[in-house]
Write a structure and sequence with these properties.
The chain is built from 16 helices and nine strands. It is an alpha+beta fold.
Amino acid sequence: MKRVKRIALVALTLLLGMLVMPAHSQEETVAAGVYVPAMTLPPQVRLEGLRPIYQQLNRCSSAALTIQLSYFGWSGTYDDSIRALNPHLEDVAVRLDEMTRFVEAQGLRAIERVGGTLDLLKALVANGFPVLVEAVYYDGPDAFKDWMSHNRVIMGYDDAQQVLLSYDSLLGNGEDNTGRPIPYADVDERWRAFNRDYMVIYRPEEEERLQAVMGPLWDPQAAAEQALAQSMAELETPYADSFTVFNAGSSLVLLGRHEEAAEYFDRARGTGLPWRMLWYMYGPFEAYLAVGRYDDVLQMARDVIATTPGVEEAYYYAGMAYEALGEQQRARANYEVAVMRNNGFTQAVAALGRLAAAGG
């Protein structure tokens, strides 16, 4: 049975920064199903029962999701995840909403949010929820040249060592599969480029407990507002960069504030972004479409496709721009390519259906 190991409970701060009640000090081992309130986080937690997976090229999303699902007793395989999430050989990225749909097809539930914090990750793990996070992977001195997305599963932490513990399909799972350590000081450096997004899987009967852990962040709008506040605060520091500005735009898109979002994306793109950024993040497409900047959408799509033809989202957004411009044939052609590359791309499938219903 999967168990959460808890050692020497001490008083910590709430995930939202409020003061806490003191907790027990005796050593304990508690089943994963037992609720640990966020205000009584133990100093050390390690979730057990996750299945190690080592990834194929550009298949970290499917690997991380398989690892996360294994904690819940899922009997599927890594190949099952790849067939569902990366049906085309050239597919280089998987969105979190694709993963949540796959999870729900397995009889479980999942949520995706932005604006995460270290304390929230710890609170989720302490309550028996391993967390999939999207972060940056790169090696070498030229970060923008080598920059790319990488998904890993957070399954523990240790306050004494000041580390999160992870299962990582590329970098390993730590000694004896006890979790690869990531220093607290390094967590945000690579996570923030993706607006600190994360996905939590849970059983239907665990929803109330998960809501209690997340508090107001259960609401997607509240999470987006927190993410925006994180960016706004960061903009006032010397550490602000193009990722900070891009994150602000991404949060504003989630909040429906597209004109403001477009301004932030203009700033971020003008400052400079990694060349792979739009393989994974689609906020600029959404914002520019909403404000009628269709030529910009088409140019961004062309730029992405020029570097790799495997990003089906680029064809989808190009189709959206052509449809808005009244060029139905070009719109349909792009939607068809998007669906050819990923027949589970529900938005593109719906777009083709919309055109067919309109006679386009």
